[in-house]
């Protein structure tokens, strides 16, 4: 693992280097620890990140084995990674079909990757990404997603929260 940072009190963003692992947004990998604990996580890597560098968004849930391991891990810790696996991916042949991506919590991870891949490949039709959470404080990664909006006029990002909390300096 290259870096671990907390996006919120219960979401860790892990950045790791693994040469030869294809960055296929929307796919998932299996993360295994030396203790034998294994869990699948969706790749959250933006399409334009250099090859070999990858990102996962992990919800830290108390008393869950992998969450506890990740919460206590430092950069440099070694995990085994297998994959990518799964069928969720950007598949537009023409780039002329609208895309609607809807996810809540860390379900944002694969959707962010798919949206960035569509943009990188020149998707012309509208791309709508809806990200929900129980409260606005759990809507993590907003700044990074908003940065994509500025570079792609066809990309639309909407956050949805049951409870809206005001944050200092934020409307």
Task: Give a brief outline of the structure.
The protein has helices spanning 65-72, 108-120, 142-151, and strands at residues 3-8, 11-17, 28-32, 38-42, 53-59, 80-85, 99-104, 127-135, 155-163.
Task: Provide structural commentary.
The protein has 171 residues and is α/β, with parallel strands linked by helices. It contains three helices and nine strands. It has helices at 65-72, 108-120, 142-151, and strands spanning 3-8, 11-17, 28-32, 38-42, 53-59, 80-85, 99-104, 127-135, 155-163. The chain has a three-stranded antiparallel β-sheet with strand order 1-2-5, covered by helices on one side. Strands 4-3-6 form a three-stranded antiparallel β-sheet, with no helix packed on it.
Order of helices and strands: EEEEEHEEHEHE
Beta-strand share of residues: 35-45%
If you compute it from the alpha carbons, what radius of gyration comes out, rounded to the nearest whole angstrom? 16 Å
Outline the low-pLDDT stretches. Answer: none
Q: Could you say which overall geometry the principal axes of the C-alpha atoms support?
A: globular
Query: Can you summarize the main beta sheet?
Result: 3 strands, antiparallel
Helix content: 10-25%
How many beta-strand segments? Answer: 9
């Amino acid at each position: 693992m290259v870096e671990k940072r907390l996006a919120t009190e219960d979401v860790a963003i892990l950045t790791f280097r693994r040469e030869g692992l294809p960055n296929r947004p929307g796919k998932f990998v299996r993360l295994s620890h030396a203790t034998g604990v294994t869990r699948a996580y969706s790749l959250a890597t933006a399409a334009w990140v250099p090859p070999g560098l990858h990102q996962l968004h992990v919800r830290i849930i108390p008393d869950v084995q992998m969450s506890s391991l990740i919460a206590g891990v430092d950069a440099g810790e070694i995990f085994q990674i297998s994959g990518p696996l799964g069928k969720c991916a950007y598949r537009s042949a023409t780039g002329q079909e609208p895309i609607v991506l809807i996810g809540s919590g860390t379900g944002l991870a694969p959707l962010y990757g798919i949206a960035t891949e569509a943009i990188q490949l020149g998707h012309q039709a509208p791309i709508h990404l809806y990200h929900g959470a129980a409260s606005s404080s759990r809507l993590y990664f907003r700044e990074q997603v908003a940065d994509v909006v500025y570079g792609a006029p066809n990309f639309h990002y909407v956050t949805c929260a049951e409870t809206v909390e005001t944050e200092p300096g934020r409307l």
